[in-house]
Amino acid sequence: MWMLSWLPFILLSCLFVYLIVQIWHQSLGRWERLKEFCLLMFIWVLTAFCYTPTAYNFSGTVITDYIQWGPVKMTLIPFQHLDTEFWLNILLTVPFGFLLAWNYPHVPWRRTILLGLITGLTLECGQFVLDWLVNIGRWVEVDDVLTNCAGVIVGFIIFRGLSRMPGWRWLTR
């Protein structure tokens, strides 16, 4: 059963290898290929953090207000604990927001916010489904959706700020 819980991540990793090969064979310039490769590799890192049967506890806080629905533990009340784990969850998706902005620098703010929300929802819904299917033992939290969204937005802001500074304009190539 333990190996079964790793199967989704192994399959996703195979998909990422296929996508990397596809990027390599595209008729893109080296710079565009590098940008797409970096984005794809960070998405793989996110899947490693979120879709593997591992537990990370940086806060030591015990969450008592949760709902158990089958094998899934969910917290639906946001901002119960503004601890280290809360802030690290924002930092987790900052590079993703930066890399999205690097690859697609002309995305408007509304779409940026929507991409952040979709990121958080995709990660948490994926954990929910994988907990049901193969019991990866992860929590599904509303806080994670909000913090992942915030991290993507912060990453976009950092990119926009850096790309306007002298010496950093190479980011917009």
Topology:
Blueprint (H helix, E strand, L loop, with lengths): L1 H24 L4 H21 L16 E3 L2 E4 L8 H20 L5 H26 L4 E3 H22 L10
Parallel strand pairs: 2-3
Antiparallel strand pairs: 1-2
Helix pairs in contact: 1-2, 2-3, 3-5, 4-5
Pfam families: VanZ (PF04892)
Keywords: Membrane, Transmembrane, Transmembrane helix
Protein name: VanZ-like domain-containing protein
What does this structure look like?
- It is a single chain.
- It is built from five helices and three strands.
- By secondary structure, it is mainly α.
- It has one domain.
- It has a three-stranded mixed beta sheet.
- 25% of the residues are buried.
- Keywords: Membrane, Transmembrane, Transmembrane helix.
- InterPro entries: Teicoplanin_resist-assoc, VanZ-like.
- This is VanZ-like domain-containing protein.
Compact description:
The chain is built from five helices and three strands, in the order ααββααβα. It is mainly alpha-helical and 173 residues long.
Describe this protein with a few key phrases.
5 helices; 173 residues; mainly alpha; 3 strands; single chain
Cα-to-Cα separation, first versus last residue = 48 Å
Q: Let me know the number of strands.
A: 3
Q: Determine the structural class based on helices, strands and strand pairing.
A: mainly alpha
**Element-level helix/strand string:** HHEEHHEH
Q: Into how many domains do the coordinates divide?
A: 1
Helix content: 55-70%
Radius of gyration: 18 Å
Name the shape in a single word.
globular
Provide a count of the helices.
Answer: 5
Low-pLDDT sequence parts: none
| Largest sheet descriptor | 3 strands, mixed
Read across the widest sheet, the strand sequence of neighbours is: 1-2-3
Strand content: 5-15%
Mean pLDDT: 91
InterPro entries: Teicoplanin_resist-assoc, VanZ-like
Organism: Lactiplantibacillus fabifermentans DSM 21115
Pfam family, one: VanZ
Keywords: Membrane, Transmembrane, Transmembrane helix
